[in-house]
Amino acid sequence: MRRRESYLHEPIEDVRVSSSMSIGDLISAYEKIHGFMAGHLARAVKMLRECLKSSDLRVLSFTANLVATGLRGVFSQLISSNTFNLVVTTCGSIDHDIARSSGGVYYKGFFEADDVELNDVGIHRLGNVFIPVENYGPIIEKQVYSVLDSLDRSREWGIYEVLWEIGKEITDDNSILRSAEKTKTPIIVPGYLDGAFGTALFTYTQTHKDIKINPMKDEEVMANSFFTAKKAAALIIGGGISKHHSIWWAQFRGGFDCVVYLTTAVEYDGSLSGAHPREAITWGKIKPNAGHVVVYGDATILLPLIAAAIVEEFKS
């Protein structure tokens, strides 16, 4: 049994805040506040600041819903600054990025909208984000077809390479694909068929049999990245296939050395989305001695704080 004193070594501190506080000051305040997720957020920032600088493989994993929000610019910033050098995400992230980069405007909405009425007037609802029908599917198909038309037929193309080619055509600095192409950061989409991009890819290949798409090239990128990494760190936002594909490949090098989960999913139902890093240890996806922390909360609120803190630290 541990001695009582070993539990009582760092007291909670009261804080006062002001509009002039820097992000660093605010994170320090969260560390003093400690309860309840405040302490976890402060630990996450501290951990990422330390391990990203010493890691040659820095994985950013996130789900598509976030790209429909203003966080798209934050993701682009994290890629363009080389804070992360490998991205794992879902097909919807590609859809939203292409649509918004091509003039498709998304609008502020509300959760309580009449969905039957929205359907009648041609508006998709994603939470409290409103997306005009014409600003989604048709725009994505047109852009994907245009890029596929230009691809060299004499070679095979990985999905990540197709995404780089799309990024070359984009002029929007907030585009994830543009930032990835400029920094040559691979964007791996294990579920690339599960969205408008994948459907456009499928329909195009039905009438253009000469194009060669090989998703195994994306898996080669994952294998080479993890097998050669001396130290691997990750910020995993949300769950699902993007989270699992990231930690799945980590197991082949003995696991991540450092990982932060940002989520709203709970673990009691046994889902992968809610599973904690300690569970991943049993699968060899995270090293037993790895630094890890789970921050519960809405990524649209928490990620800007984390990103502001780690981007500046990484630059320095």
Walk me through what this model shows:
The chain has 316 residues and is of the alpha/beta class. The protein has a single domain, classed as Deoxyhypusine synthase (Deoxyhypusine Synthase, 3-Layer(aba) Sandwich). It has 13 helices and nine strands. The strands form two sheets. The protein has a six-stranded parallel beta sheet with strand order 6-2-1-7-8-9, sandwiched between helices. A three-stranded antiparallel beta sheet has the order 3-5-4. Strand 7, helix 11 and strand 8 form a beta-alpha-beta unit. The mean pLDDT is 96.
Strands, helices and their partners?
Layout: H1 23-33, H2 38-54, E1 57-61, H3 71-80, E2 86-88, H4 91-101, E3 107-108, H5 115-120, E4 123-126, E5 129-132, H6 137-150, H7 159-168, H8 176-183, E6 187-188, H9 196-207, H10 216-228, E7 232-237, H11 240-250, E8 256-263, H12 277-282, E9 286-296, H13 299-315
Main features:
316 residues; 9 strands; 3-stranded antiparallel β-sheet; alpha/beta; 46% helix; single chain; Deoxyhypusine Synthase; 14% strand; 6-stranded parallel β-sheet; 13 helices
The profile of the biggest β sheet is: 6 strands, parallel
The strand line-up of the biggest sheet is 6-2-1-7-8-9
Radius of gyration using CA atoms only: 21 Å
Shape: globular
Strand content: 5-15%
- Could you please say which CATH topology applies here? Deoxyhypusine Synthase
Concise structural overview:
With 316 residues, the chain is an alpha/beta fold. The chain has helices spanning 23-33, 38-54, 71-80, 91-101, 115-120, 137-150, 159-168, 176-183, 196-207, 216-228, 240-250, 277-282, 299-315, and strands at residues 57-61, 86-88, 107-108, 123-126, 129-132, 187-188, 232-237, 256-263, 286-296. It has one domain: Deoxyhypusine Synthase (3-Layer(aba) Sandwich), CATH 3.40.910.10.
